[in-house]
Write a structure and sequence with these properties.
44 residues; mainly alpha; 0% strand
């Protein structure tokens, strides 16, 4: 049985910035909570 894996452009950019983000989100299931971060909100 094979599971489909989808990789978005955002995932690639985050991986290039810091591979730990992807590991925490997809392997450990820990969300980033970007909506709570001041710099992320200002950058949007």
């Amino acid at each position: 049985m094979s599971a489909e894996v989808f990789i978005t452009v955002s995932d690639v950019m985050e991986y290039l910035f810091c591979p730990r983000f992807i590991y925490f989100m997809y392997c450990l299931g820990i969300p980033q909570h970007e909506e709570k971060r001041y710099k992320v909100l200002k950058g949007r």
